Structures are given as structure tokens and as C-alpha cells.
Amino acid sequence: MRVLLIKPYSHFPTRIPHLGLGYLATALRHAKHTPLIADCTRERINCRGLLRLARESAAEVVAISMFSADFPVVADLIPKLRLALPDARLILGGPHPTALPCDTLHQLPEVDYVLAGEAELSLPRLLEQLASGTVDGDAIPGLAWRTNGQIRASLPRWENDLDSLGFPAWDLLKPELQRIAPHGAFVRQMPVAPIITTRGCPFPCTFCAARVISGVPLRARSIAHVLDEIELLVRRHGIREIHIEDDNFTARRKYALEFCEGVSRRFPGLTWCCPNGVRLDTLDAELLAAMRRSGCYSLSVGIESGCDKVLEAIQKRINTDQVREKVELIHRTGLKTTGFFVIGLPQESEEQIRQTARFARSLPLDHAQFSVFLPLPGTVFFDSYVQKVGFEAVPWKNFYTTDPVQWPGGIPVARLGQLQRQAFFTFYFRSRIFLNILRELRGPRHFWHLMRRALAIFKPMDAARRIASSYSNEKSKPSHQ
Predict the structure, then answer these.
(1) Are 88 and 51 in contact (CB under 8 A)?
(2) Are residues 283 and 326 in contact, defined by beta-carbon separation less than 8 angstroms?
(3) What is the rounded CA–CA span in Å between residue 170 and residue 25?
(4) Residue 83, exposed/middle/buried by CB under 10 A (0-12, 13-18, 19+)?
(5) What is the per-residue pLDDT across 427-463, written as a single tens digit (0 to 9) for each?
(6) What is the pTM of this model?
(7) Which residues of 200-310 form beta strands (DSSP E)?
């Protein structure tokens, strides 16, 4: 079958190749299907261009990967795809459908199926059954489907042997198609490619949906398999820097040390970093030194709050003294550090938010990200939010970290926006931080990229969306034609 895999347009600044669709494309090829990937954000494909690409592909199946923030875009796109490809089967997957498979199918009636969890096994199996004319939903892990006027769902399955999935279809992902700072604001060398080495999250943080989205068991690829993929990226695509996109790369200390040894041995001169974040309590001096020797130059770390009461409430399993100790250790090792913080958590006070901003400034961080809390599907906070307001009242059209969702009885969203801007301003407009950023600039295009990101924080949300729409409204340039 001809299968069109879509990552819809998003205003978020991350511009890395979509690894999930790359792995799906490999699985489809193994099953003798013909996949095509349309990454609308990276390739600047607007809606009109995507519909043209869909018609020209004559796809028999269209599969869309979506986050919760993509809901309004996907809801608008699906009826148009149905008109463009009236006989195609429409399938949704990704984080949002994984967290809410039955609700997603109910809300989007023109969608045929939802696949929750890892779909490298389930999507080919579904296509096989579609070709046979009979779909047995119970035999397909993670499938949500309609039967006799009801919506049913089977439990997802998590693949233990990650090596068996092969490499993502890098020829379709085109890592050499570069954007300024694909993940995060800074890189050392171009071109850059993302990889994952592990899947799963065993940690119970209540604000995060990783356990639902990627499974609780932490599973890892073999080091040899990871290094062979880097070899392919370096030799075939000219990659000079690797970004590890795992949720928990350093959770297994021995594994991380073996990775560092392998990279040092096989890829001298390669740089790498962990922009998606690692847990501070998994780091020690020996591991950090090995990371730096092997070419690592930057770590993002999940700090979340500068208040111990808040950290305890969200089950972070770390306190501010431990945070300070680890961040100072990273700094002494010579690695750049970005701290991730969440403000506006339920029951968090304005003073606790200001305490978090002060705590961030007191640490030897190079960068900081202050995200406004969202009750993400798949978290206990989402369940609590729905109990308070009702599922039908969830504002999917405004479900962004830059456009806060009002928590019932919580700090007003306008005030949260002010506190967020104050946190950014007081952190970045200090001489040490500002001069370091100037030293990291790689030219005028990089400067204007950072300015656009700053405007998305310091200007109202409608201005940020206008900036984002300048990409989505560009002349479409699908690279697959």
C-alpha cells in the first residue's frame, strides 16, 4: 500500500526530523509497503501544498502524528484530506491519541482508526488486515476502532528489542535539510541529526505524560546498534553533531558510559548534546567527564521548581539542595547547562513562582526555559482538570504552553504570562548571560531566529502566531515531488 505519513504544521520552534515517522517508514518498508513522509514544519509545506502532495501520492492510507497542541490543525486538515483522498483510510497516532485514543476517535468522526503507543508493529498489522478486508481490532495492539456503534480500544504493546526496529528511514527524513538550531537555540556544528537510544520512563512526575506516551519500562538499544546508526549519519548524510532526544539517556549509568567510550573511539571530532533533558539525580563526576571527553558540550536538565514543597507535590524525587549540587558539578565539568522550569502548577503561589525565578538566577545555568504549566493528557493533572471543568470544556484550540489553560481557582492566565515574562527577562538580561549568548551567535540568521523566539515570549500570543504563520503561508515546497 502507498502510505502518506504526516507531521502537521506547528508553531513550536523545534525543527528536528520526526523520528517516530522515520521508524514507522522503516517498518512499512519491511512489510512491503511504500511510505512517504511529509514533515510540514521542517519542509514548510502549507495546507494547500500538503493536499496537493496527498493527491499526487495517491495514498491509500494517511497516518498523522499529533500532539495535543496540534488538535485544531488536525481537526481542520482531516475533512480536507477526506475530500482530497476519498477512498484513503485516515489513521491518527502520536502523543495525543496515545493518551486519549477513544476520545480522539469520538471527537474526529472522519478518522477511521487511532493507534496508541508504539506503532511499528501495529500499523503494518492493521494494513495487512485492511488488505484482507477484515479488521480484528483485538489482535492489533493499541488500536481504537468503531464497531456496532461503539468505540473500542486494545492495550498498546511496548517493544523490548529496540534493535529489531532498525534505523529510521533517513533517506525520507533528510537530516541534511537544516534549519537554524533544530532543537534548542544553539548548536556547535552543522548539520545536526537527532537519535534516540532508549524508550520509556519509570519516573512518576505528576505533570509529565511520558509514562503513558512511551511506556513505563525503560528499554535501550544496544550500543553497537546506536553507533552504527551514527556511522550511517556521518558517512551518508555528512552529520557532524548528534542530539540525543531520549527522556532518560543517563538513567542507566553503565549504558551512558559505554556510549561515551564508543563515540570517543569511533567519531573523534563529533559533537553531541542532550537538548531534551536528563534527570539531575542520574549524574556524577565520572559520567560527566566521560561525556565531555566524547564530544558532549551541553545538557538540558529538568529542574521544574525552586521550591521544595512544589517539587515534593509533583513527585520529582529531588530537592533544591541536590539540584544546586548537580548543576554546579555540571558547570565545573565545563558543560553548558539549560534548566527547564514549570510555572503555574496547581496550588502554586505567585511567591513560589518568584522563588523559582530567583533560584534559576542563583544557579550557574547558561540558559533557562520557563514553561507555563499545562494539564497534559496522560497526566493525573489532566484527569483532575477534566473532573473540574468537564471534557467538553477542554480548550483544545488554545492548548499551548505559551497560551496558558486556566486552572480552576488558580492564578489567572494573564498574570501567569506576566510572571513568565518576568522570569525570562530577569534571567537573560544579566551581563554574564547576555554576553555568553552573543558569543554563541553564528550570524545574522541565527540572531533573527532568536529574536523570533523572544517575541513569542514577550509579545501577546496572537503576535507569536502571526510570526509562526509566516512559515505556514509560504509558498509550499514539498521536497518529495
Answers:
(1) no
(2) yes
(3) 9
(4) exposed
(5) 999 988 888 877 777 667 666 666 666 666 655 444 3
(6) 0.91
(7) 219-220, 241-244, 271-278, 296-304
